[in-house]
Write a structure and sequence with these properties.
Strand order of the largest sheet: 1-2
Distance between the termini: 34 Å
Radius of gyration: 17 Å
Structural class: mainly alpha
Number of domains: 1
Helix content: 55-70%
Strand content: under 5%
Number of helices: 7
Order of helices and strands: HHEEHHHHH
Oligomer: single chain
C-alpha cells in the first residue's frame, strides 16, 4: 500500500472518531455523567461530560461512519485506492470509544487536579484515539486488523495531534474557542 493510500485510509477510518467530541460540544449541557459527585475532594468527571453530549457525539460519529460506508465504493473509485467500509459494530465502537476515551481523560485530569479545559499535552490529543481504537478492536477484531495496520496506526498517532492543534488554533482565531489548545 502506498503512503498516500495509508494516509487516506487512516484519515477516512478515523473520521467517525474525530467527529463525536465536536458534536458533543454542540449538543452538550444537561445532566453530568458523574451526577455532581466528588471523589477524593475532586469531581469525578466535571460538568463538561454530560449524558446528552455523549449520546449526541456517539450518534453523530455512527451516522458519519454509516454515510462513509455508503460512499466508500465511489470514493475508492474516484481516488483509485481502496477505502474501508464500516460495519455497524465498527461505526458504533469508533464513535462510542472516542467518547469514552474523552471521559477517561476527564477522570485522569480531575485526579491530577487539573481544571476543566486545562491542557494536558498528549492526553488531550490522543485520549479519544485510544478509546476509539480499543473499542473497535474489541467490537470488530477482524475489521480492525484489516483496517488499522501498523502503518495506518502510525499515521493516526502522528496526524491526530497535528490536526487537533491546527483545528483548535483556527477555532480560537475565529473566536469559537476561549483557549487555543
Amino acid at each position: 500500500m502506498s503512503w498516500l493510500a495509508v494516509i487516506a485510509t487512516a484519515l477516512w477510518a478515523m473520521l467517525p472518531a474525530y467527529v463525536p467530541n465536536n458534536a458533543a460540544v454542540l449538543a452538550g449541557g444537561g445532566r453530568p455523567i458523574d451526577g455532581g459527585r466528588s471523589w477524593g475532594g475532586r469531581r469525578v468527571l466535571g460538568d463538561g461530560k454530560t449524558w446528552r453530549g455523549t449520546a449526541a457525539g456517539t450518534g453523530a460519529g455512527t451516522v458519519l461512519a454509516l454515510a462513509l460506508d455508503a460512499l466508500a465504493p465511489a470514493a475508492s473509485d474516484a481516488l483509485g485506492m481502496p477505502l474501508p467500509g464500516f460495519p455497524l459494530s465498527a461505526a458504533v465502537a469508533l464513535a462510542l470509544g472516542a467518547m469514552l476515551g474523552d471521559v477517561a481523560a476527564s477522570f485522569i485530569k480531575r485526579r491530577l487536579d487539573r481544571d476543566r479545559g486545562a491542557p494536558v499535552p498528549g492526553l488531550d490529543q490522543l485520549d479519544f484515539v485510544v478509546g476509539a481504537l480499543v473499542a473497535a478492536a474489541l467490537a470488530t477484531p477482524g475489521w480492525f486488523a484489516d483496517t488499522f495496520t501498523f502503518p495506518v496506526i502510525a499515521v493516526v498517532i502522528v496526524a491526530t495531534p497535528l490536526l487537533h492543534v491546527g483545528t483548535n488554533a483556527i477555532a480560537y482565531g475565529l473566536g469559537l474557542k476561549d483557549e487555543p489548545y
